[in-house]
Amino acid sequence: MIRKYILLALLGSCLPAFGQSALADFVLQGDALVAYTGEARTVVISDALGIREIGDKAFAHSAVVSVTLPPGVEAIGDWAFWGCAELTDISLPEGLVRIGDWAFLGCTSLQRLSVPDSLISVGDWAFGNCSSLTAIETGEGNPAYAAVDGVLFDKSGTILTIYPGGKPNSEYIIPEQVELIRNLAFSGAVHLVTVRIPAGLRYIGNSAFYECAGLAGIEVDPENPEYHSSNGVLFDKAGATLLAYPGGSQNPAYSIPYGVTVIGDRAFYGCAGFTSILIPESVTNIGQEAFLGCVSLEAVILGRSVADIGDRAFYGCAGLSQILLFRSSRLGEDAFGAVPGELVYLD
Questions:
Q1: Which residues are paired to 229 by β-bridges?
Q2: How far is CA 85 from CA 95, 99, 129, 210, in A?
Q3: Of the residues 166, 195, 217, which one is the last residue of a structural domain?
Q4: How is the beta sheet containing 42-44 ordered, strand by strand?
């Protein structure tokens, strides 16, 4: 049964401690808070509600500034605080076990975060585009995570989980013991200019450097057996897959080296700085959203060898006036969506 409560009626004595008497509505389903419908800027959720879970999108796009969760909450769902652009403070209680995917995506005012010792699972891009988040803190008693200089790792220090989007450093040297970078780990890091990858790193997750608009170069230790970089661009060791082009590069043109067969998902996402790209005949696959939002891109010629063009690969490339490609290429959904130019097929 869905129950609706008015926060003022339930919190009672809790409100004066925060110097305000705001109204806020909650919609509950069982022991989950599934929607917040109030207008209060400071929200303190009472223990009396018996909440164990903050549901998917429960606070999404609300105007909350501060939220205190009760001790009984064990899970924060996917997208739970998505787009809460004014949220500056979130109190995560001891007993919290899981934070879902994209849970705090776009919380651009959130500055610091303290992770309770009970937390053992953080979803992909849980703090994506949190452009003011300078540090994540953990206690020594957390069995799953440890923070080093504000960056979140697994307890062993071998998995880099989240690099805070607002961390002020322009350069980050990934520690030598790190073997894996999680999906989207650096995404939205607004101050990063250079990232240095150590010899021991074995795996870089999908879209790890997504939306790093200031990133001018990715450097890889020459002894690394899995990856290499050339002019700041990240490739697999064999040079067959282009994984990430730095979003902050100021080069107006780029020629993909011959021998590259795959342009990875989101490899050039949001790279606004270049106007033309040369794709060699060796390329057979262009990944999903590979060039999405490259608004200054004016010209692209796709060779006969390109068999697959992923979903939204060139979506929003507003400067493209003409696209030349062969009919044999398979186009994913909205591969050229929101592109003003016409597709010209070559036989």
A1: 234
A2: 26, 18, 10, 20
A3: 166
A4: 42-44, 66-68, 89-91
Instruction: Give percent helix, percent strand, percent coil of the chain, each to the nearest 5.
Output: 5, 30, 65
CA distance 273 to 160: 28
| Same domain, residue pair 263 and 196 | no
pTM of the predicted model, to two decimals? 0.87
Ordered per-residue pLDDT tens for the chain, 347 residues: 444 443 433 443 334 333 332 334 789 999 999 999 988 889 988 888 899 999 999 999 999 999 999 999 999 999 999 999 999 999 899 999 999 999 999 999 999 899 999 999 999 989 998 999 999 999 999 999 999 999 999 999 999 999 999 999 999 999 999 999 998 899 889 999 999 999 999 999 988 998 898 999 999 999 999 999 999 999 999 999 999 999 888 888 899 999 999 999 999 998 888 888 889 999 999 999 999 989 999 888 888 899 999 999 999 999 998 788 888 899 999 999 999 888 888 87
Residues 144 and 162 in one domain: yes
Q: What is the largest CA-CA distance in the chain?
A: 75
N residues, the chain: 347
In terms of Cα–Cα distance, which of 169, 166, 127 is closest to 145? 127
Tokens of 210: 């997504």
d(CA 208, CA 183): 5
- Among candidate residues 343, 337, 345, the one with its CA nearest the CA of residue 304: 345
Backbone angles phi, psi at 222, to 5 degrees: -60, -20
Q: How many separate domains does the chain show?
A: 3
